[in-house]
């Protein structure tokens, strides 16, 4: 049964002495904390305070390598033409801090704050996969059921490729179904008549992408397929007997307290009042404020970094075995277990980084870039959302800074084997 998660716990203070503003201005804080992180054998227990950590991440990285290490975050935004950025850092299974930088819309000058909504783009997919897993948990259908036994409004023609093995929800959410589409989703200008989900799958004239089709037997190769996720969106809606966005409101966004999140396309007028504009490679306005994505599960989520962090934390806490999470430990383990072909589990990319395993997903829509990464077992991570085409470069630099400041095991040295004398 779905349970509602409450977000009233205070952020835990870290036991590290705050340095003075004068030291921070002089740049000594960065050297002190980075030295502690690199030298201390108990770095994971001596993390900086949220304010100190944020200052370190925002400033130049004097003792780090990389093209952008010497830039402050503000300088990096300018160099990459990224007008606005939202960041939420996860530490000890909580949102340690969240902050907005720059402007949400170069035409109005509206600032980014923690409630500014961005397009999550393909990070819509793992959030939608949680909706699929809630249905599995409640016995609506099985993760390994034939998708044609779930669908009522359409039928997938296996074209001979599914004679021995059917396409299933597990395959659709892990991009191993054998479906081909060969396209991303460019979205539609506001006001353009939108295709239905069935019309998208069939490559209707109203759709701006091609038909979704089988090109190989299931589970024989990994091929990223937004069309496959769109098919799963239709199956979930058919099984629940409600529009997909309503299912997600009831089963995922509402229970997680993701109050600044919606799969509604186009975005509501109320939410649009603090929604970011899409920007190009130079940080310029591109005409329309944003594109509309009727492929909701694949690309249609509007959200904030804090709301996405809440989603990631619920996954982490369920994996730990907490009992007030949307999914049970058993069912979240399915989301975090690679299916055996490619790097994907049910909705997430799974990756070994250094000494740890992480679940992640990136997002790339017209004028928006985003990235979510979180540790499978240790309770930390980060979400970065931007409103420009070069935001992915900025996001990867922010990840590098966060993992060093917070001493993630992705940058830790392997433990050396000890011997008793």
Structure, explained:
With 421 residues, this protein is an alpha+beta fold. It has a single domain (100-411), classed as 3-Layer(aba) Sandwich (Beta-lactamase). The chain has helices at residues 21-26, 28-39, 50-58, 73-80, 124-137, 147-150, 169-174, 197-202, 226-240, 244-253, 269-272, 296-299, 305-320, 329-335, 391-405; strands spanning 84-91, 94-105, 110-111, 118-119, 179-180, 213-214, 302-303, 349-353, 356-365, 368-375, 381-386. The protein has a 7-stranded antiparallel beta sheet with strand order 3-2-1-11-10-9-8, with helices on both faces. A two-stranded antiparallel ribbon has the order 4-7. Strand 2 (94-105) and strand 3 (110-111) form a beta hairpin. Helix 4 (73-80) runs antiparallel to helix 15 (391-405), helix 5 (124-137) packs across helix 10 and helix 13 crosses helix 14 (329-335). The longest helix has 16 residues, at 305-320. The protein is globular, with a radius of gyration of 22 Å.
């Amino acid at each position: 049964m779905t349970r509602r998660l409450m977000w009233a716990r205070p952020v835990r203070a870290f036991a590290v002495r705050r340095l003075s503003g004068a030291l921070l201005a002089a740049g000594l804080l960065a050297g002190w904390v980075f030295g502690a992180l690199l030298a201390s054998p108990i770095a994971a227990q001596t993390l900086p305070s949220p304010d100190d950590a944020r200052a370190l991440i925002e400033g130049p990285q004097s003792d780090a390598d990389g093209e952008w290490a010497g830039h402050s975050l503000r300088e990096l935004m300018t160099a990459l033409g990224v007008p606005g950025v939202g960041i939420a850092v996860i530490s000890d299974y909580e949102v340690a801090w969240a902050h907005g930088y720059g402007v949400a819309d170069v035409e109005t000058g509206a600032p980014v704050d923690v409630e500014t909504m961005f397009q999550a783009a393909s990070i819509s997919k793992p959030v939608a996969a949680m909706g699929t897993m809630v249905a599995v948990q409640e016995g609506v259908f099985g993760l390994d059921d034939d998708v044609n036994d779930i669908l009522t409004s359409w039928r997938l023609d296996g074209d001979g490729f599914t004679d021995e093995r059917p396409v299933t929800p597990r395959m659709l959410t892990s991009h191993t179904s054998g479906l081909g589409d060969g396209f991303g989703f460019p979205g539609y200008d506001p006001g353009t008549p939108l295709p239905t989900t069935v019309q998208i799958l069939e490559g209707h004239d109203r759709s701006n992408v091609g038909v979704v089709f089988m090109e190989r037997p299931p589970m024989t190769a990994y091929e990223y397929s937004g069309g496959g996720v769109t098919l799963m969106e239709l199956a979930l809606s058919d099984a629940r007997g409600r529009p997909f966005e309503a299912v997600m409101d009831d089963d995922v966004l509402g229970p997680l307290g993701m109050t600044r999140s919606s799969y509604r396309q186009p975005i509501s007028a109320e939410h649009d009042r603090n929604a970011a504009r899409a920007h190009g490679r130079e940080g310029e306005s591109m005409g329309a404020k944003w594109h509309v994505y009727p492929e909701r599960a694949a690309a249609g989520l509007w959200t904030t970094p804090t709301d996405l962090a809440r989603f990631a934390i619920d996954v982490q806490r369920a994996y730990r075995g907490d009992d007030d999470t949307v999914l049970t430990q058993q069912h979240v383990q399915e989301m975090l277990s690679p299916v055996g072909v490619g790097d994907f589990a049910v909705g997430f990319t799974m990756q070994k980084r250094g000494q740890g395993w992480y679940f992640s997903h990136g997002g790339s829509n017209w004028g928006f870039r985003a990235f979510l990464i979180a540790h499978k077992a240790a309770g930390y991570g980060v979400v970065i959302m931007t409103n420009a085409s070069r935001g992915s470069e900025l996001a990867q630099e922010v990840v590098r800074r966060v993992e060093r400041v917070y001493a993630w095991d992705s940058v830790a040295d392997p433990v050396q084997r000890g011997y008793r004398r």
